[in-house]
């Protein structure tokens, strides 16, 4: 991620982000499809990183607790009034970030939040971020780790990247959105006909 950050220094400063750095700490994160991060956000930001510096949090007495403070220029902002505590920032030049907003307006980015280069996003992901993901925020995405893995209802999409690709950044994460159809059911969508075989329910043979 340091290569991504350093590639965008020197741009205009408009906003400050803070990310916690905890030396020696490991993190066990709950897997999340990009759409899940999007739908849990109250604001989506597309921006460019202009700079960074390491600072100490004002509410921490630990000498090992540091923050990386990013300065960014916002390009595009989307807001949802009913959403909870999370923020998704899609950064044009460097990284895509998710985090939580503090009372003073800063965004805190943790180790389990989304960090991704905008240029590394697929064309489908960029389209999904623009309009498709929001069409499926009422749908539920269920992660499949092993078989059997079956849908529990019509309002659910099975996320099977781990089973098919042994990765959480597989075909469904990079190409598909789980959207609500006209009959109120939910289904994976890529831009063409919904898949019929690739992501069906997994059961024991």
How does this structure look, described?
It is a single chain. A six-stranded mixed β-barrel has the order 1-3-2-4-5-6. The protein has a two-stranded parallel sheet with strand order 8-9. Strands 10-11 form a two-stranded antiparallel ribbon. It is globular and about 50 Å long. The chain folds into two domains: 1-121, no CATH class; 122-205, Tissue inhibitor of metalloproteinase-1. Chain B, domain 1 (Alpha-Beta Complex). It is built from five helices and eleven strands, in the order αβαββββββαββααββ. 30% of the residues are buried. With 205 residues, the protein is of the alpha/beta class. It is found in: Secreted. InterPro entries: TIMP (IPR001820), TIMP-like_OB-fold (IPR008993), TIMP_C (IPR027465), TIMP_CS (IPR030490). Pfam families: TIMP. Keywords: Disulfide bond, Metal-binding, Metalloenzyme inhibitor, Metalloprotease inhibitor, Protease inhibitor, Secreted, Signal, Zinc.
* Number of beta-strand segments: 11
Overall average residue pLDDT: 68
Question: What's the helix-strand series?
Answer: HEHEEEEEEHEEHHEE
Main sheet attributes: strand count, strand direction, barrel closure: 6 strands, mixed, barrel
Shape: globular
- Low-confidence runs of at least 5 consecutive residues: 1-27, 80-95, 193-205
Q: How much of the polypeptide forms β-strand, as a percent range? A: 25-35%
How would you name the oligomeric state of the polypeptide chains in this document?
single chain
Rg from C-alpha positions? 18 Å
Separation, N- and C-terminal Cα atoms: 42 Å
Give the count of structural domains: 2
State the helicity in percent bands. Answer: 10-25%
Family: Belongs to the protease inhibitor I35 (TIMP) family.
Pfam family, one: TIMP
Subcellular location: Secreted
InterPro entries: TIMP, TIMP-like_OB-fold, TIMP_C, TIMP_CS
